Amino acid sequence: MVDQSTSSREIDIEFRGVTKRFDDVVAVDNVSLDVERGAFFSFLGPSGCGKTTSLRLIAGFEQPTEGDVFIGGNSVVGIPSHKRPVNMVFQHYALFPHMNVAENIGYGLRQRSPKPAKQDVDKRVDETLEMVRLSGYAKRRVWELSGGQQQRVALARALINHPTCLLLDEPLAALDRKLRREMQIELQTLQREVGITFILVTHDQEEALSMSDRICIMRDGRIVQSGSPRELYDEPVNRYVADFVGKSNFFSGEVVGSNGSGVTVKLESGQALTGIQPKSAPGLANGSRASIAVRPEMISIKAADEANTDSSITIKGQVMNRIFLGEHSEYLVATEGYGDVMVLSPKSIEHSDRSFVLDDRVALSWRPDAALVLGDA
Amino acid sequence: MGADSKTNRWLTAALLTPTSLWFLFLLILPLIVILVFSFGERAAVGGYAGGFTLEHYANLPSRLKAFQNTLIIAPVGTLLALLVAYPLAYYLAVRVSRRYKLILLVLVIVPFWTSLLVRTYAWIFILGGRGIPTLLEFIGIEGVRLINTPGAVLVGIVYGYLPLMVFPIFVSLEKLDKSLLEASSDLGGSPYKTFTQITLPLSMPGVATGCMLVFILLMGEFLIPAFLGGGKVFFIGNALVDLFLQSRNWPFGAAVSVTLVVIMLITVTLYMRMTLRGNTGRDESLM
């Protein structure tokens, strides 16, 4: 609807030095961030990282201990949730069991003062039901619906109020895998249609990567890194992010030197590996702990006797395990001095001479720029 | 499968037998006896003498006052107990931190560890001449009479029956999903609207159960009116004690009992109809 590249960069949600303490537990620790209008923004992290508390600070269920929260440019500190222009889709939907689908969806409109006319509410409810493809379900009891349908009622109940920002607390966690994938696409489409800011909380990196424009990775109440899904995947600032977003092989050791072409890390086994540092990552001093991270799909696997023609880094090993995953195969290779290495080999190159079985001697190689040197923080 | 269902049937029968016998001998047979007695004659020395007459039913209006008192004070007492119990149950279920919840719950039950007789007796002193009225005299309010009034009986009822009302309401509020309250607030519902539209309707099963428990027990109450009503405010229960134990007019007592049972059946049936019609939830049958 709105062309994001030409519209001015308006900020819908902003945190300035926000800290939230529960007794002596710090749930959110001095977090500052901003979310642009119309963005699909995700908080990603393991349980207890402060992502849900951050969402609840926006919703108004919690008030910050320190710092300031802004919605649409106005500070909302001290303003209770029922006076905030945001709406939430709860993890278990929190549909009102004593109301039917239409009553649930119209709830927000009926709370307004002056109370809108009944036929106006009914009309809006019908439109919203149509938007979430639930026309004809208006009079159903909410517990008669399937998980996916309940999810859509929860979405409709929030979106009918035209919030500044829609908050989604692990909205797909209760759905099975296939339905989850469908709802991910549906959510993205819906977000483009209504054009409002979506803020998602999830522990599922795949979900965050596939839906969001921007992701904020949290740990222990702090932001570890925020950026686009591609930035997080290609240029993680440290090992934690690389480990959380996608899969990686890590070779950990100690930084022994760096030059223009890369940083060299000496592994515990005495072997040395060289890699490059992601642009945004903090510099690493000699002697500091670091890991070389290589994504499994960046590694190519060849027979051990095949000649190595380019400047790739090559290590030798033996196939320990092979899992056929359909579109690709996952190999686990025991190497000499580098530990076990995981390799993803796409089906397109898995023809007869590139397909290996247990105990085959193989050579693994990757381009030098595929190896990232990351601090262990 | 066939053998299994046969053993199952035997097991079911075996498990149900004690209850069935209990109901038969201690509930149904006594009720039949009472019914038969109510149509009989009073023996010259008291008790029952057989025969068939409707005179005891014709004589019911002589106990009109007891019926009136019971039928007014029992519902009013139930309502008062509800008004006192609901905020308490709400506080316990929603507001109190988990740490203190158990302690406070136990405190609600503690009075039950002592006999109701003793506790009601204590109220005679609190409400009696040397209790609250004397205290009121200190601040210049004289001539207040509390004991032996309907008010005193109501105080005793609220005090004695409070836990019976608190617990069902507490349970229904406790199992109320707190995210529903957040959802209501999130959708713009003020705390008051959230209470009237979400909390109250969803706790109605507890309210209905509590009211029914208290009401049914109050209809048969005799101790509290006897102690705190002092012969002035007496219930059907007091009339029955008098008829069976003092004047030994068993047939008339039986007729009053049968009438009480009929009144209860009618009111409870009507009440159930009402609450079940209002019931919209899944598991909101009376707990």
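qc> DSSP finds twelve helices and no strands in chain B.
qc> done
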